[in-house]
UniProtKB/TrEMBL annotation:
Name of the featured protein: dTDP-glucose 4,6-dehydratase
PANTHER family listed in its UniProt record: DTDP-D-GLUCOSE 4,6-DEHYDRATASE-RELATED (PTHR43000)
InterPro entries: dTDP_Gluc_deHydtase (IPR005888), NAD(P)-bd_dom (IPR016040), NAD(P)-bd_dom_sf (IPR036291)
Stated family: Belongs to the NAD(P)-dependent epimerase/dehydratase family. dTDP-glucose dehydratase subfamily.
Pfam families, sorted: GDP_Man_Dehyd (PF16363)
GO molecular function: dTDP-glucose 4,6-dehydratase activity
GO biological process, one term: nucleotide-sugar metabolic process
UniProt keyword annotations, A-Z: Lyase, NAD
Amino acid sequence: MKLLVTGGAGFIGSNFILYWLKKYPQDKIINLDKLTYAGNLENLVNSEKNPNYSFVQGDICNLQLVNQLTSNIDTIVHFAAESHVDRSILDPAPFIKTNIEGTYILLESALKNKVARFHHISTDEVFGALPLDSSDKFNEDTKYDPRSPYSASKASSDHLVRAYATTYNLPTTISNCSNNFGPYQFPEKLISLAISNILEGMKVPVYGDGLYVRDWLYVEDHCEALDLILHKGKVGETYFVGGLNEDIPNKEVIRRILKMMGKDESHLQFVKDRPGHDRKYAIDWSKMKRDLGWKPRHSFDEALEKTIDWYRKNQDWWKRIKSGEYKKYYKTQYG
Ligand code: NAD
Ligand code: TYD
């Protein structure tokens, strides 16, 4: 395969590139990434000399550049996005630009250059919020109900992908996954922020009552799911990718991390809630299991241990991030 990976210097994209180059050394990957605050080429230093890998710094909103790159590949794997809900609340503009317009540009280019597959990475957040006491789960038939600028922009991009599939027969697939965690995650999301804060001797901010529920997916398990979708997935289909079979409230997630790191609960700090905070996400990933034979390889606790270990061993990586622009963001977000 010849792949154009967008957003490959970000958290999931870089994990995907490392996974793919190792498993399919004969495939070629072009990584198109703008290198926003979230893009980090350090994640890919070990691939720099690989003749089958190349990096292009650029914006997915640049049609000319995207056309040039798309003319030479057969598959687009589209990760590039503004991805953090809290930042979308502070400033929605880049979310609208990259997530909606950027996806449109990629779709136009994919159509023009007749790519064999356009795979779009999306999120379970586009389906809104479940009540805490409900045992319902999102599935492939759930109606869209996005509630934050981030999820609204991702929902728009999903709709555009489906519109291009229906109207122009573009061969697309979509995956809606739950909250990822693992190596190379920018320390602004709950688990990466919690582990790095604890390693620095800081407290972990818990929004509101801490009873909010997310589904958690280890990034390596996500990469395996994407591999199956790209090789065996059916064109036109949407696949849900999740990690858990139980509800684990945020407070409990942080408690587990504290315990694994030998710390007590005095490290929890309850802070003001996120506006419009979605109560609960839960995802039914049985279609991935039934149709493609996928299931997450790691239990939540195993994956947490691996992630903690990675952040322990790679302190330079996140300390460099935390000493830069991040400081200003942290102050704005947490005071
Ligand atoms: P990330 O924020 O870590 O990385 C995003 C990458 O996209 C960065 O490298 C950034 O430089 C690049 N980028 C941003 N704007 C760009 C532009 N205009 N042109 C080119 N590159 C640009 O994000 P992530 O956590 O790796 O998420 C990847 C994808 O997965 C996103 O589409 C996100 O919506 C989706 N997703 C993420 C999660 C999660 O838990 N992280 C969950 C569900 C879905
Ligand atoms: P986050 O990692 O931002 O992912 P998302 O909002 O996309 O689900 O947040 C996960 C959950 O953790 C969410 O309920 C908000 C909560 N949270 C905190 O309690 N404290 C924090 O500092 C952060 C970043 C998130």
